[in-house]
């Protein structure tokens, strides 16, 4: 399984609009072979042991795929072009996004039903 992350630097004050764009998305990726799930992460900060931590300037878009080839096929699809056709204004971003792909080599979690 692979996880694709797109770290998006959102300008301060544009966070709500950025989140709203995802709430209105077409939902096209869900029907593609090999797609597992999508997560949109908003940065949060916390004080731990008297020190401010977290609070990144990046929102993170994660998609999980059965195989790398499934993600590649999505990016080459008409649905991908449609899903990305309504580009947000440049003023929403504080810089370029950072693309990363990782293979999951270990995963842990609570058993279902716990």
Structure notes:
This protein has 114 residues and is of the alpha+beta class. The chain has one domain (2-103): Alpha-Beta Plaits (2-Layer Sandwich), CATH 3.30.70.100. Helix content is 20%, strand content 32%. It is built from 3 helices and 6 strands. The strands form 2 sheets. It has a 4-stranded antiparallel beta sheet with strand order 2-5-1-6. It has a two-stranded antiparallel sheet with strand order 3-4. The longest helix is centred in the N-terminal third of the chain and has 9 residues, at 15-23. The chain starts with a strand and ends in an 11-residue tail after the last strand.
* CATH architect. name: 2-Layer Sandwich
Number of helices: 3
Q: What is the first-to-last residue Cα distance?
A: 24 Å
CATH fold name: Alpha-Beta Plaits
The parts where pLDDT drops under 50 for at least 5 residues are none
- The coarse silhouette is globular
How are strands sequenced across the largest beta sheet? 2-5-1-6
Strand content: 25-35%
When the domains are counted, the total is: 1
| Overall SS class | alpha+beta
Estimated helix fraction: 10-25%
Main sheet specs: 4 strands, antiparallel
Give the topology string: H per helix, E per strand: EHEEEEHHE
Rg on CA atoms, Å:
16 Å
Q: Please count the beta strands (DSSP E, at least 2 residues each).
A: 6
The overall average pLDDT, rounded, is 93
The top-level CATH class is: Alpha Beta
């Amino acid at each position: 399984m692979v996880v694709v992350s797109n770290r998006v630097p959102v300008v301060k004050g544009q966070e709500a609009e950025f989140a709203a764009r995802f709430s209105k998305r077409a939902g096209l990726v869900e029907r593609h072979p090999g797609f597992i799930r999508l997560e949109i992460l908003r940065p949060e900060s916390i004080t731990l042991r008297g020190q401010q931590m977290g609070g990144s300037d990046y929102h993170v878009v994660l998609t999980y795929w059965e195989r790398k080839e499934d993600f590649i096929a999505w990016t080459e699809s008409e649905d991908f072009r449609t899903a990305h056709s309504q580009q947000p204004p440049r003023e929403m971003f504080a810089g370029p996004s950072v693309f990363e792909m990782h293979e999951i080599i270990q995963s842990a979690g609570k058993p279902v039903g716990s």
